[in-house]
Design goal:
- It is a single chain.
- The chain is α+β, with helices and mostly antiparallel strands.
- It contains 8 helices and 7 strands; from the N terminus they run βααβαααααβββαββ.
- The protein has a 4-stranded antiparallel beta sheet.
- β6 and β7 form a beta hairpin.
- About 35% of the residues are buried.
Length: about 180
């Protein structure tokens, strides 16, 4: 499975912003040599990279290095990634479209970042959204939390208030799909 450079480019920026240049150096030094080289040389936004080495393991290292293994860091980097990706003209697109129209593009958005992958919109109600990730060959709690954080923040950018989330079913926990549920006021 592969991940687009745009999905991993925000990670070192997040770490440097939250933990400073020394924190970034510490995190990079904890990575495998090949991954460290990619981050040192600069992530090519349009390139596809192996998901395990450049997305899953670096996210796990973030959680270990700065959050004592707490996976909440994966959710935080997902939220940060939405801010990183949905700036400028894209932010206006999110704000101007309805939640339904924005979310109907979920499968396209998913395929933009991960291949192969598939996401289905199950429910879009005025205050509730249910999505199913049906294809994701590298199941991971870190990936699910990053995706949940990204969607949560994109709903907030859209104007939804007090966005809550849950993952009642998970590919990473051997369920047949990952179910992402979002609610807001």
């Amino acid at each position: 499975m592969q991940v687009k450079g745009t999905a991993i480019a925000a990670l070192p920026k997040f770490i440097e912003e939250k933990h400073g240049p020394e924190g970034l150096k510490k995190w990079k030094n904890s990575l495998a040599a090949d991954a460290r080289k990619v981050f040192d040389d600069g992530v090519m936004l349009s390139e596809w990279y192996p998901i395990k080495e450049l997305y899953l393991e670096p996210t796990a290292q973030l959680c270990e290095t700065f959050y004592q293994g707490d996976t909440k860091a994966a959710l935080e980097i997902g939220r940060y990634s939405a801010d990183y990706a949905l700036r400028g003209v894209y932010k206006a697109f999110v704000k101007l479209s309805s939640v339904g129209n924005f979310i109907k593009r979920a499968n396209v958005l998913m395929a933009t970042y991960y291949k192969p992958s598939a996401m289905e919109v199950v429910t879009v109600d005025p205050r509730r959204l249910v999505l199913h990730i049906t294809v994701f060959p590298a199941p991971s709690q870190h990936a699910e939390l990053r995706i949940a954080g990204w969607i949560q923040r994109s709903l907030e950018i859209h104007g939804c208030k007090e966005v809550g989330w849950a993952i009642p079913r998970s590919l990473a926990k051997m369920d047949p799909l990952t179910e992402l549920v979002f609610t807001w006021k």
